[in-house]
């Protein structure tokens, strides 16, 4: 006797699951300008590489004879697939089925994807749209009781931060547990005007006295600038491309090393404009991103957190094909000085580099911690000291190039002074305990007060001190290992990248990335 009837029933149920919330709900989703969960998976993964897990999970109803009469698919689609030929785990919320809420979810599907990523040691991508399996007051009626909060599988969510690359994609209004899952990741992204993120939505805010729209409460314009989310894009397809790029720099797990990319760019390539990009007038700014693009492998820079902690640029890049984590000061914001937000950004990024064994390249222009009442109110020195501690705890190979300023406690965070230093300086480098311009009045208060012509004395002191601030004076005392022609920067960093490659050690690390 054949089992063909059961196979036909299997195909019938699979077809019902692929209808998601039904034609009306799917049309409503598309009318909002959003892709369905299955379209998202197809666009993100390599063609025909998706293997679904739990496709038949959902809520079924039967007639008196036990025949299936209706089926509502679980609002979570999960499984395995490939991105650029590399296996990943993926889980997506289906907003067409009860907006992704808990009363239409099967919690085990979320848990199994976290467990698959953890035990198979594969990157995890969460496509979050709705509450991400979070609560709904309708659950009280269907369950007949309430429950004490316990986020499903959160031990695995936390453990995965130390084990595999985790991506959180906000692809609609994301609230509660969904919001927490989005930011408990190594890389998160929102789509402008399509994604919103909040602890609780506008109806709850209204009951508490704030009558706001979803966009006002948690639009991408807010969360990519307050540090909650790393990236903002214009379309879902752009978000998928950014995720593919992010993963290309990382190993599948901490037990392996980041893969080397193509070596398509001459390691000795020199850009002539670097010789005069830094102005002699220390009060004038320049474009650090132009320097970055000139020294990294062409087209390889992937920036993260562009709109948060803006005095420091963070991202991935390649040198002679080797992936690195790149830090760089941006003088357009606080002259490159570290704010509270900058310190938080640096801390998190260094944890990411340490977790996945990425050497760090630091293009330094840091006049110190930003000064003022607003920063003191924000416990600036504590957060800054935490970032400094992370730099000193890091074990990955580290290379610093002092482009211009390195002053004070924050300037000392350009590298761990107690390690072997791959450290270079441009002729434009300027360092010390504090900038001369900001310290003369304090150091010479009595002399200036007693002078017949304080302005002339101040000018004379500045000229005298300027003669000794040259980086060549520091090189004479071996305060810097090497001063280089700016045009040689790519060459020396490519050498560092090749020296660092065999030093990287796979395996878990003493401290790792956290949200």
Give a short overview.
With 515 residues, the protein is of the alpha/beta class.
General description of the model:
- With 515 residues, the protein is an alpha/beta fold.
- Helix content is 36%, strand content 20%.
- It has 21 helices and 18 strands.
- Strands 1, 4, 5, 6, 7, 8, 9 and 10 form an 8-stranded mixed beta sheet that branches.
Descriptive keywords:
515 residues; alpha/beta; 2-enoyl-CoA Hydratase, Chain A, domain 1; 3 domains; eight-stranded mixed beta sheet; 36% helix
Provide the fold topology.
Elements: H1 4-18, H2 23-31, H3 37-44, E1 51-53, E2 58-62, E3 68-73, E4 76-83, E5 86-93, H4 107-120, E6 124-130, H5 138-143, H6 154-160, E7 166-175, H7 177-183, E8 187-191, E9 196-198, H8 202-207, H9 214-218, H10 220-223, E10 231-233, H11 236-248, H12 288-295, E11 302-304, E12 312-319, E13 322-329, H13 340-355, E14 360-366, H14 373-377, H15 380-393, E15 398-407, H16 408-411, E16 422-425, E17 430-432, H17 436-443, H18 445-450, H19 454-466, H20 471-476, E18 482-483, H21 489-500
Parallel strand pairs: 5-6, 6-7, 7-8, 7-9, 8-10, 13-14, 14-15, 15-16, 15-17, 16-18
Antiparallel strand pairs: 1-4, 2-3, 4-5, 11-12, 12-13
Helix pairs in contact: 4-6, 13-15, 17-19
CATH class of the largest domain: Alpha Beta
State the share of residues found in helices, binned by percent.
25-40%
The amount of beta strand, in percent, is: 15-25%
The structural class is: alpha/beta
Rg is 27 Å
Mean pLDDT, to the nearest integer, reads 90
Which regions have little confidence, pLDDT < 50, spanning 5+ residues? none
Q: What can be said about the biggest beta sheet? A: 8 strands, mixed
In the CATH hierarchy, the architecture of the largest domain is Alpha-Beta Complex
């Amino acid at each position: 006797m054949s089992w063909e009837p059961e196979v036909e029933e299997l195909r019938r149920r699979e077809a019902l699951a692929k209808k998601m919330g039904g034609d009306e709900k799917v049309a409503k989703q598309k009318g909002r300008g959003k892709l369905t969960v299955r379209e998202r998976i197809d666009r993100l993964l390599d063609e025909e590489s998706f293997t679904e897990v739990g496709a038949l999970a959902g809520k079924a109803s039967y007639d008196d004879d036990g025949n299936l009469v209706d089926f509502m698919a679980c609002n979570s689609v999960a499984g395995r697939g490939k991105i650029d030929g590399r296996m990943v785990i993926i889980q997506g919320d289906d907003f067409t089925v009860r907006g992704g809420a808990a009363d239409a979810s099967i919690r085990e599907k979320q848990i199994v994807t976290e467990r698959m990523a953890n035990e198979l040691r594969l990157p995890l991508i969460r496509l979050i749209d709705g509450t991400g399996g979070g609560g709904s007051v309708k659950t009280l009626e269907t369950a007949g009781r309430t429950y004490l909060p316990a986020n499903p599988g959160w031990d695995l969510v936390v453990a995965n931060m130390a084990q595999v690359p985790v991506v959180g994609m906000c692809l609609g209004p994301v609230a509660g547990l969904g919001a927490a899952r989005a930011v408990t990741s190594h890389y998160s992204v929102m789509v402008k005007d399509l994604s919103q993120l909040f602890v609780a939505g506008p109806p709850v805010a209204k009951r508490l006295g704030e009558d706001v729209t979803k966009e006002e409460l948690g639009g991408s314009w807010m969360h990519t600038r307050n540090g909650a989310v790393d990236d903002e894009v214009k379309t879902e397809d752009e978000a998928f491309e950014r995720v593919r790029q992010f993963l290309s720099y990382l190993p599948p797990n901490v037990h392996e090393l980041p893969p080397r990319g193509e070596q398509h760019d001459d390691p000795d390539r020199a850009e002539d404009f670097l010789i005069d990009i830094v102005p002699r007038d220390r009060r004038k700014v320049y474009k650090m991103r132009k320097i970055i693009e000139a020294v990294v492998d062409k087209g390889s820079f992937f920036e993260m957190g562009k709109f948060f902690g803006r005095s420091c640029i963070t991202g991935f890049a390649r040198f002679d094909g080797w992936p690195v984590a790149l830090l760089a000061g941006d003088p357009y914001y606080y002259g490159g000085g570290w704010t509270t937000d900058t310190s938080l950004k640096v801390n998190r990024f260094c944890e990411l580099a340490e977790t996945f064994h990425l050497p760090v390249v630091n293009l330094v222009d840091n006049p110190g911690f930003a000064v003022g009442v607003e920063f003191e109110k924000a416990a600036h020195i504590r957060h800054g000291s935490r970032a400094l501690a992370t730099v000193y705890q890091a074990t990955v190979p580290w290379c610093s190039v002092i482009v211009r300023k390195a002053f004070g406690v924050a300037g000392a965070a350009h590298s761990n002074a107690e390690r072997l230093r791959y450290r270079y300086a441009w002729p434009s480098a300027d360092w010390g305990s504090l900038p001369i311009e900001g310290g003369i009045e304090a150091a010479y208060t009595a002399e200036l007060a007693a002078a017949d012509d304080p302005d002339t004395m101040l000018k004379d002191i500045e000229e005298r001190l300027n003669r000794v601030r040259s980086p060549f004076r520091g090189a004479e005392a071996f305060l810097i290992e090497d001063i280089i022609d700016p045009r040689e920067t790519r060459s020396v960093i490519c050498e560092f990248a090749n020296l660092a490659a065999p030093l990287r050690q796979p395996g878990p690390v003493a401290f790792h990335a956290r949200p």
